[in-house]
Automatic annotation (TrEMBL):
Chief localization: membrane
Annotated localization: Cell membrane; Membrane
Source organism (scientific name): Prunus avium
Keywords (A to Z) from UniProt: Cell membrane, Glycoprotein, Leucine-rich repeat, Membrane, Receptor, Repeat, Signal, Transmembrane, Transmembrane helix
Family to which this protein belongs: Belongs to the RLP family.
Protein name, entry field: Receptor-like protein 2
Limits of the Leucine-rich repeat-containing N-terminal plant-type domain: 47-65
Assigned GO CC terms: plasma membrane
SMART domains: LRR_TYP
Membrane topology: Single-pass membrane protein
Signal peptide range: 1-30
Length: 549
C-alpha cells in the first residue's frame, strides 16, 4: 500500500468509520430488522437460547449486526459448542445478510436447507463442522461468489461435490474431512477456474470415499499450502503438476491406492514440511535428492513398496522430527547413515525393512528422540551405553533382530529413565535371561509399563529385578526356555494385568498368589488395556504372531 501526507486525513476518517462500525453491534440504539428477528426466533434452537428477553436481536447471544440503510441486519451468527441439536431450520435462509455462520461442535442432524447457498449469497465463512448433518450438499448456486471458508468436516454428508467455477475462484479453505462424500475428486472443480489460478490455500478431503485419480488441473491451485486427501480410494500416480504447487507445506495422502515412483521433482516443493504417503502402493527409491527439502519436519512413507537405500541426503533435513518408513523393502547398512545432523528427530520407525548392520551409533546424538522402532530389520551387535544420552526416550522396540548381550542391554537400558515401553522380543538367542544380582540394585525401569522379552529362548529363572517394576502393566516372557517355578511375587505387582509366561519350561504349580493380582481383581476388571496414550508408535508384542514385526 502506498501512503502520503495528502491521504492522511482521509485515512483518519476511515479509521474513525472503522471504529464506529466496530461499536455498532453494541450500541443501544441499534435494533435489528424485524425479518431477521423473526427468522432467528423461528430457528427454534434446542435447547432454547436466552434470546427473546430483549426485542433487539442484535444484542442476543451469538448474534452480530451491521447497519444497512435504516436497518440493522444480522451478519454474524456464531454459536459453536452450544449443545444445539435438531434440524437446521429453513428459516435460516431468511437471514440474507449473513456473512459469518459458525454452528460447529453442536449436534445438528438432518439435511441442510436446499437453497442454503443461493439464499445466503453474502456468506464469507460457513463452519458447520462437528455435527451430524446428513444427505447431499445443497447445490452451490451461481450466486455463491463470496464464500471464502467452508468447513463441513466431521459430519455425515454424502453424495458427490460439484463446485461452480464462480465459487471455486474465491474459496480459500475447503474442508470436508470425515464425511461420506463419494464420487470423483472435487479438485477437478476446485482447481479448474477455466484455467485461471484459484485462491485455494487449504484443501482437506481426508476420510471420505472419493475415487479415481488426482485429476489434471491441480497445478492451477497454485496457492495451495495444505493438500490433504488421506483415507479415500484414490488411485493412479502422483501427477507431476503437484510439484508446481510452490507454496505447498503439507502433502497428506495416506491410506489410498496411489502407486508409481515418487519423482525427483518433489524437491520443487521447497516449502514442504509434511510428506505423508503411508499405506499406498508406491514403489521405487525414495528420491535421492530429498535432502533439498530443508524445511521437512515429517516424512511418513510406511507400508509401501519403496526399495533402495535410505538416501544419505536426508541428513540435510535438519528440521526432521518424524521419520516413519516402516514396512517397505529398504536395504543397506543402517550404521552407515549419519543421524548426527538431525537434532530434532523425535520419532523414528524404520522397522520391517531389510536393513543390515548395527544400531547406528550416530543415533545417540539425536537428543530429542522419544520413540525408536527398528524392529525386524536384521540389526546385529549390541546396544551401546551411549543410548542413555537419550533422556526423553520413552518407547524402544528392537524386536526381531540379531542383537546379542541381553544382560548388557538390560543393564544399560535401566539407565534410560524415561522408558515406558521396551520391546526386545526375538533377539539374544539362547543367552541366559538377564538376572545379575546387581541388576535389582540399579533401580532401573521405574516408569516401565510394557516389557516384552519373548521368543529369545532365554535360559535361567524368572529374574528377581522384575519385582521392582511397580508400574509394569504388561509382561511377555513367552517362548523362552525359562526354568524353575513361577514366582508368587509376580502376583503383587500392583499394575500388572497382562502377563504371558506360556511356552517355557516352568516346574511346579501355578502360584495361588497370581489369582490375587491387584490390577486383575480391581473393580475395573475388563476395562484394562494398555493405555495407548503413552505409546508413541504402534506396538506388536506377541512373539508367536506373524504380525509381530
Ligand atoms: C438472559 O439475557 C438477559 C439479557 O441479555 C440477561 O440479563 C439474563 O441474565 C440472561 N439470563 C440467563 C439465564 O442467561
Ligand atoms: C422468510 O420470510 C418470509 C417473509 O417474512 C416468510 O414468509 C417466510 O415464511 C420465511 N421463510 C422461512 C423459511 O422462514
Ligand atoms: C468456529 O468456532 C470454533 C469454536 O470457537 C472455532 O474453533 C472455529 O475456528 C470457528 N470457525 C471459523 C471458520 O472461524
Ligand atoms: C445419503 O444420506 C441420506 C440420509 O442419511 C440417505 O437417505 C441416502 O440414501 C444417502 N445417499 C447415498 C448415496 O448414500
Ligand atoms: C481470470 O482472472 C482475471 C483476473 O482475476 C479476470 O479478469 C478474468 O475474468 C478471469 N477469467 C476467467 C475466464 O475467469
Ligand atoms: C484438515 O487439514 C487442516 C490443515 O492441515 C488441519 O489443520 C485439520 O486438522 C484437518 N482436519 C480438520 C477436520 O480440519
Ligand atoms: C509390493 O509389490 C508386490 C509385488 O509387486 C505386491 O505383491 C505387493 O502387494 C506390493 N505391496 C504393496 C504394499 O503395495
Ligand atoms: C528381505 O530380503 C529377503 C531376501 O532377499 C526377502 O525374502 C524378504 O522378503 C525381504 N524383506 C523385506 C521386508 O523386504
Ligand atoms: C556425522 O556427521 C557429523 C557432523 O557432520 C560429523 O562430525 C561426523 O564425523 C559424522 N560421522 C560419521 C561416522 O561419518
Ligand atoms: C539373524 O538371525 C537369524 C536367525 O537366527 C539368522 O537366520 C540370520 O542369518 C541372522 N542374520 C544375521 C545378519 O546375522
Ligand atoms: C555386554 O555388555 C556389557 C555392558 O555394555 C559389557 O560390559 C560386556 O562386556 C558385554 N559382554 C560381551 C560379551 O560383549
Ligand atoms: C496375530 O494377532 C492378530 C491380532 O490379535 C490376529 O488378528 C491375527 O490373526 C494373528 N495372526 C496369527 C498368524 O496368529
Amino acid at each position: 500500500m502506498e501512503h502520503n501526507k495528502a491521504s492522511a486525513s482521509s485515512n483518519l476518517n476511515k479509521l474513525f468509520l472503522f471504529f464506529s462500525f466496530l461499536l455498532l453491534p453494541c450500541s443501544a440504539s441499534a435494533a435489528c430488522a424485524q425479518v431477521d428477528r423473526a427468522s432467528l426466533l423461528s430457528l427454534a434452537f434446542r435447547p432454547p437460547l436466552n434470546w427473546s428477553s430483549s426485542t433487539d436481536c442484535c444484542s442476543w447471544e451469538g448474534v452480530s449486526c451491521q447497519q444497512d440503510d435504516d436497518d440493522h441486519r444480522v451478519v454474524r451468527l456464531w454459536l459453536p459448542w452450544r449443545r444445539l441439536s435438531g434440524v437446521i431450520s429453513p428459516s435460516i435462509t431468511n437471514l440474507t445478510h449473513l456473512t459469518h455462520l459458525n454452528l460447529s461442535h453442536n449436534s445438528f442432524s438432518g439435511p441442510l436447507p436446499n437453497d442454503l447457498f443461493s439464499s445466503l449469497s453474502s456468506l464469507h465463512v460457513l463452519d458447520l463442522s462437528y455435527n451430524r448433518l446428513t444427505s447431499h450438499l445443497p447445490v452451490f448456486s451461481s450466486k455463491t461468489t463470496r464464500l471464502e471458508t467452508l468447513d463441513l468436516s466431521s459430519n455425515l454428508f454424502n453424495g458427490s461435490i460439484v463446485v461452480p467455477a464462480s465459487a471455486a475462484a474465491i474459496l480459500t479453505t475447503f474442508n470436508v474431512r470425515r464425511n461420506n462424500f463419494a464420487g470423483s475428486n472435487p479438485i477437478s472443480f476446485l482447481c479448474n477456474n477455466r484455467n485461471n489460478h484459484t485462491s485455494l490455500t487449504i484443501l482437506n478431503l481426508s476420510v471420505n470415499k472419493f475415487t479415481g485419480e488426482i485429476p489434471p488441473g491441480v497445478g492451477a491451485c497454485s496457492k495451495l499450502q495444505v493438500f490433504r486427501a488421506g483415507f479415500n480410494y484414490l488411485s493412479g500416480y502422483l501427477p507431476g503438476e503437484i510439484f508446481d504447487l510452490a507454496d505447498l507445506e503439507e502433502l497428506y495422502l495416506p491410506g489410498n491406492r496411489l502407486s508409481g515412483h515418487i519423482s525427483k521433482g518433489i524437491v520443487l516443493l521447497t516449502k514442504l514440511k509434511m510428506l505423508e504417503l503411508s499405506s499406498n502402493k508406491f514403489s521405487g527409491p525414495i528420491p535421492s535428492n530429498i535432502g533439498k527439502l530443508s524445511r521437512l519436519e515429517n516424512l511418513l512413507l510406511s507400508i509401501n513398496n519403496f526399495t533402495g537405500h535410505l538416501p544419505p541426503s536426508l541428513t540435510n533435513c535438519a528440521n526432521l522430527s518424524t521419520l516413519i518408513l516402516r514396512f517397505n523393502h529398504l536395504t543397506g547398512d543402517l550404521s552407515a547413515f549419519n543421524f548426527t545432523t538431525l537434532p530434532r528427530l523425535t520419532m523414528l520407525d524404520l522397522g520391517n525393512n531389510n536393513f543390515t548392520g548395527e544400531l547406528p551409533q550416530s543415533l545417540y546424538s539425536c537428543k530429542s528422540l522419544k520413540a525408536i522402532r527398528l524392529a525386524s530389520t536384521q540389526l546385529t551387535g549390541q546396544i551401546s551405553p551411549e543410548i542413555v544420552a537419550l533422556k526423553s526416550l520413552s518407547f524402544l522396540s528392537l524386536s526381531i533382530n540379531n542383537l546379542t548381550n541381553a544382560t548388557g542391554a538390560i543393564r544399560i537400558l535401566m539407565g534410560c529413565k524415561s522408558l515406558t515401553t521396551l520391546v526386545l522380543t526375538k533377539n539374544f538367542l539362547l543367552e541366559p535371561v538377564p538376572n545379575d544380582e546387581n541388576l535389582a540394585e540399579l533401580d532401573g525401569f521405574l516408569n516401565l509399563k510394557v516389557l516384552a522379552l519373548g521368543g529369545c529362548l532365554f535360559t535361567g529363572q524368572v529374574p528377581s529385578w522384575l519385582a521392582k517394576l511397580k508400574n509394569l502393566q504388561a509382561l511377555d516372557l513367552s517362548y523362552n526356555l525359562i526354568t524353575g517355578s513361577i514366582p508368587g511375587w509376580l502376583g503383587s505387582l500392583p499394575n500388572l494385568f497382562y502377563m504371558d509366561l506360556s511356552n517355557n519350561l516352568f516346574e511346579g504349580g501355578f502360584p495361588t498368589e497370581l489369582c490375587g493380582m491387584p490390577a486383575l481383581t480391581s473393580k475395573e476388571t475388563g476395562d484394562h488395556k494398555v493405555q495407548e496414550s503413552f505409546l508413541e508408535l504402534p506396538l506388536f508384542v506377541k512373539p508367536n504372531n506373524a504380525t509381530n514385526q
